[in-house]
From TrEMBL:
Record: residues binding substrate: K101, R290, R291
Residues reported in the UniProt entry to bind FAD: M136, Q165, K189, G190, A191, K203, S228, H229
The EC number(s) this enzyme carries: 1.5.5.2
Species this chain originates from: Paenibacillus cremeus
Cofactor note as given: Binds 1 FAD per subunit.
Cofactor(s) the protein needs: FAD
One example GO MF annotation: proline dehydrogenase activity
Pfam family, one: Pro_dh
Domain of life: Bacteria
Reactions that this protein is recorded to catalyse: L-proline + a quinone = (S)-1-pyrroline-5-carboxylate + a quinol + H(+)
Metabolic or biological pathway: Amino-acid degradation; L-proline degradation into L-glutamate; L-glutamate from L-proline: step 1/2
The name this protein goes by in its record: proline dehydrogenase
PANTHER family named in the record: PROLINE DEHYDROGENASE 1, MITOCHONDRIAL (PTHR13914:SF0), PROLINE OXIDASE (PTHR13914)
Domain Proline dehydrogenase: 48-301
Amino acid sequence: MDLGTKLFRSVLLTMAGNRAVAAVAQRYGLKLGARRFVAGETLEEVMMEVAKLNRKGISATIDHLGEGIRSMTEAEAFKQEYLKLLDCIQEHKVEAGISLKPTQMGLSLDPDAGFTHIRDIVQRARKHQVFVCIDMENSPYTDSTIGIVQKLHKEGLRNVGTVIQAYLHRSLDDVNQLTNKAVVLRLVKGAYKEPNNIAFRLKRDVDENLKQLIAARLDSGVYTAIASHDAAIIDWTCTYASERRISRQAFEFQMLYGVASPLQERLAKQGYKVRCYVPYGRKWYPYFVRRLAERPANVMFILKNWRVRKKS
């Protein structure tokens, strides 16, 4: 990554936490291009988008956006929204699971209450036969997130799994531990800034570790999601599974809403299981800015939309 790209990303990520900018963006952003990456602000909007994906043979993981909560009152409100989301999935009969962040449920403010919120959601999800993925945040929450999933499994709530990030040195040990307990995992490269002593610095090292994690999981037979838009990783996974005669029903590919849509559709047509991560909600701004920071071309897409709208 060159210096200009690093500066570009740094500026955008700083903007992600700016409340004044967020207020303006939330007034106009979905109209100017944010809807490319965010399915909408309401349950009705996200259900429509998930139904469209389902018709293409693609399932979904729905995430109600929200981060940086400051009170357990906010956490309670997010829990209630997730319970409504689960009921809505049941009502509309869409093929979808859900994804949530532990801190969004209050983990950093009141760990016991946060766990109770998560348990309430997982219990409702089990009633509706919906899978829940507990997202992995940055390294201070790795142990607690894994602990939450293990505790829920011990309570008989097995419709829940979590995420393992390949850029952490510890990840193979975590994968082996959770595989032994038949926990469903989503494998990702990882996106948080972590200290050098706990994370790989070079992309090639992260890629090699991700391949090692994928191989370990595919060989185990425990259901696994490979979450990547990296064509090289996807091709490698397909080849590995084919050479070892691993069923395409034993794993799935996961990608983001609005990113690599043709690739998602092509894999689905080839008989692979594909799941699209579909975010929605009023607090979409930080998520949207992170998508812009990933590629300068995404910013050009938004500016083009803004010019077209200004002229009309």
